[in-house]
């Protein structure tokens, strides 16, 4: 059996897991992110991986490699984190630094949402279909896979959180009004400045609180604008939602479908039967990162033989 380590880096936490070639998580660790500086953030990543290695029965010499999901824009070829808006890295040489710190040769990086999307594509065995993976969490973003290959554009494709949508207060970027922190801020304001987390907002929605219903309905309207734009551009076979807001509140799916029907033409409505919430839970990022290690190792072997 072959093993790899998948790492999912975020602004609030870092998760890493030992993955086998079937995408099963054998063991995992999680630590809080320390975003004071680029170096403190990097040391958190190293600490998470070392903690996993120390507790695992698999020596690092037997690992196929490490896959790392990084938010924002990355240079996969050179292993550099180019631009991140929630961690203090800018043109940070992630791969070279990890090779130096861990003495492991095969290390690959990609955008964290792309890593999660890859796990979904492998899990659903979508072959030649066009799939869009959308994450709704502390941010909003997406990744597009067609026939097993990402549609990357010039390197920033899929950032639907940057799309301006119409609101009662004018045009605003989707992420600024519909991601988890924005929902929490809106709820805290509506409930007399009480600090309300997103999970509490949805709890009150289920309980029938009028303020919560208004906020959730507005959230659905804003999210639907972004999804409809993607659907009109790509006409995907399938849309899969991940991220904590979507995974822990599956009611979003039915509400979103109802809202999308208002704008969709009949020829577009086929996708309404192919919109799902991820069944991989919060492990998508580390699973996708780990599986990417195996696939890139195979490609490198074939290229060497060729």
Automatic annotation (TrEMBL):
Entry-linked Pfam families: ROK
Single GO term (MF): kinase activity
Keywords: Kinase, Transferase
UniProt KW Lipoprotein keyword: no
Statement: the UniProt record of this protein carries the keyword Mitochondrion: no
Similarity comment: Belongs to the ROK (NagC/XylR) family.
Name the record gives this protein: Glucokinase
Organism whose genome encodes this protein: Halolactibacillus alkaliphilus
